[in-house]
Amino acid sequence: MKHLLESELVYGRLLLIEEPHLVQRYNKALAGFGLPPVTLERFRIDMMGFSPEVAQALGDLDYLDPLKVNRRFIILTPEQERLPLAHSSFSNTGALMHRFFEANARALHAITIKDAVYGEIEDSVAAVDTLDDLLSINEVRFRVLSADDLLGKAADLRGLVDRLVAEDDLWRDDETLNRMVELARVTGDIRQNALVPDQLVFRHEAFWANHFGGVYVFLDEKTATVICDPEAPGFRRSRPWQVSYIPANDPKLIFDFLARTGRLQLPRASWVTQSGLIEHRRAMAVEDLIAHALPETDFSRLDPVFIQTFLQRNASAVTAEGTYPFLTEKLRELGETGEVRLDLVAPRQRFLLVRAEPGHRDAWLTNRLIAAQIPQDYLSRFIFDREGFYLRYEEYSDNFRAHVVSRLTSSYLRNKRAIREKLYAMGDEDHA
Fold first, then answer.
1. Does 233 share its domain with 298?
2. What is the total count of domains within the chain?
3. Do 180 and 64 contact (CB within 8 A), yes or no?
4. Which Pfam families does the record associate with it (predicted)?
5. Rounded CA separation 247/237 (Å)
6. Is there a single domain that holds both residue 143 and residue 273?
7. Are 26 and 138 within one domain?
8. Beta-carbon contacts of residue 144 (< 8 Å; ≥ 6 apart)
9. Is 154 a member of any domain?
10. Residue 399: inside a domain, yes or no?
11. How does pLDDT run along the chain (432 residues), one tens digit per residue?
12. Residues 224, 274: one domain?
């Protein structure tokens, strides 16, 4: 992971916290969770306040996600909305946080001038023991607190103001008036500063969860579809009357579901030619072949001449693996006919020819599932399936790791939007 950390491919674009008052507020929020304070003078945080430095100091990577459900958050500044989400058990947590920031922008700006906001995204379950627990999460509620109890004091002041209006003689009570003045010194004019978040409940949409080896939950009008390890507790037993179950090791059923529900953009020359996606996947397949056959290769020499020489000298291995000749043939077929007969293609290879339907609400999740079926495409996995990318990265040789880091930093990180739009017709990522 050293190369990834140095290149900010892990924990990149985080916000540095070094102002003493913000460090103090962060420690008060930790105390609110029952955690010990840290003695760090500076650390970085992500959108939800997770800090790799704090995690290391506490010896707990999951200090804000202790049960992999009911995720905790710490907000020191509204600037956190622009940050990535570095650590999460659910793929849609970032999207929920964006919606929380957007719905409560005025209150969060007002509160964080004087206080830190912290709390939990409360699901309807306290722990995930079976698939039914995941399927029970239909909506989430943000439980919001503040480190110096600014929210509580604002609520107290609001109650006293309401009593002052309703009770004719309360204005004669010096104790009450003095208490209101004392609270107002802390909260400011609550008629002008909205200190209470407006929206705290949000619908839980389709998602991936890292439980039971990874679970995809897709929601359609009347049914839910779960894709995961068939050994996961509750598979085909949790709500069988309203849930369809697909084994994660059955590419045909997975592909048929995605295609039938309009989540895939099937191979047509109209978008394939413009995107260059299949050429990209062919190049990724060749790199993967070289990485396995010649792990100590100097990958800085990976130019067209080197690649062509490798393909010629290793023709038998290239043919046996099959991806390169398959994609070469399908590019020719697309050029001649404008489409591909998918019914004549092996189920696993079909994923090499498609991408998520860009306009579908589940496009990011669908591209994540596609990327998981094509592990040799490290770019797609880095974009859509970061956890899967990190696991496969550990299997690479040192030389190939250095090459992958170089490619990602020199190309993708410098042109993220352009590359996503070209290959996948996707704009800004909304949840990572």
1. no
2. 3
3. no
4. DUF6638
5. 13
6. no
7. yes
8. 117, 118, 119, 151, 197, 200
9. no
10. yes
11. 778 888 888 888 899 999 999 999 999 999 999 999 999 999 999 999 999 999 999 999 999 999 999 999 999 999 999 999 998 899 999 999 999 999 888 888 888 988 899 999 998 888 999 999 999 998 898 888 877 666 666 666 666 666 766 676 777 777 777 776 776 666 665 444 555 566 778 888 899 999 999 999 999 988 999 999 999 999 998 787 789 999 999 999 999 999 999 999 999 999 999 999 999 999 999 999 999 999 999 998 899 999 999 999 999 999 999 999 999 999 999 999 999 999 999 999 999 999 999 999 999 999 999 999 999 999 999 999 999 999 999 999 999 999 999 999 999 988 999 999 999 999 765 433
12. no
Same domain, 272 and 239: no
Asked whether residue 142 is domain-assigned, the answer is yes
Residues 413 and 264 grouped into a single domain = yes
Q: Which two tokens stand for residue 302?
A: 């990976």
Q: Which two tokens stand for residue 81?
A: 């909305």
81 DSSP 8-state letter: G
109: Cα within 13 Å, side-chain hemisphere = 8
Closest CA to 91 of 351, 359, 366: 366
Give me the amino acid identity at 9.
Answer: L
Place of tokens 């770019």: 379
Q: What does each C-alpha distance from 297 to 289, 401, 422 come to in angstroms?
A: 12, 11, 30
Whose tokens are 């953009």? That residue is: 265
Block residue for tokens 């905790």: 72
Range of the domain at 316: 250-424
Is 161 part of a structural domain of the chain?
Answer: no
Q: What is the pTM of this model?
A: 0.86
Instruction: Let me know: does 382 contact 413? Beta carbons within 8 Å.
Output: no
